[in-house]
Amino acid sequence: MKNKKSIASMIRGKCVEEGIRFAFLNANERLSIPAAQNYANDLYYLKTKNLPARVIKFNARPINILVKTGINTFARLGIKKIKRNLGSFKIRVANKRRYVYPDFKSSCIKINGEKFKDCCLELKVSNKMNGKYQKKHILQCAKYSTKSRKPVILFYLFHFKKAGNFNQFSAISKVFMIKAY
Question: CA angle 98-102-105, nearest 5°?
């Protein structure tokens, strides 16, 4: 059962990513947050149809707030449109060359009044900050930064249950800039 929970959690993160992408693909007609949430939920239920219903329901509950928080954070970063064709990076992992793909790439991001062009963004969705995984995430972004010769934005979305309320969730975002070039 634990493995199925992990799989459902990873699928949830990917669906949140796709919901955010869905909202920002066309800057001329930006889609509403509910449309992006519906897209993420539909995708999640489609991809988890073979998992136990209890696991599916448990992991589906924070999807809407995660998509909403992600879209609002992108807007605060000044992202108006994301690029469709991300391109890959070739990196060496355990003496083998592998292609890796960043989650998002934006033409312009504004952080603390400073603009960055063509930055990659790496999204991580979790219910808690875990130092062990954070080091892996930073290393992953450093590799992207080295290959692209540009800063990479490490973008965390954390969700948690509101105190005393069974079905309501909150989410916060944390944004870090990784420069390794």
Answer: 145
Number of Cβ atoms within 10 Å of the Cβ of 176 = 15
pLDDT in tens, 1-52: 668 888 999 999 999 999 998 888 765 666 789 999 999 999 999 999 999 9
Within 10 angstroms of residue 164's Cβ, the number of other Cβ atoms is: 6
List strand residue ranges (DSSP E) for the chain, in order: 89-93, 96-100, 104-111, 114-126, 152-161, 169-178
Ramachandran bin of 70, using left for φ above 0, alpha for ψ from -120 to 50, beta for the remaining angles: alpha
Q: What does the alpha-carbon distance between residue 84 and residue 104 come to, in Å, rounded to a whole number?
A: 9
State both tokens at 143: 């590799």
What is the per-residue pLDDT across 54-86, written as a single tens digit (0 to 9) for each? Answer: 999 999 999 999 999 999 999 888 888 787 666
* Structure token pair of residue 1: 């059962």
CA angle 151, 153, 154 (to 5 degrees): 135
> Are 156 and 129 contacting, i.e. CB atoms less than 8 angstroms apart?
yes
d(CA 52, CA 49): 8
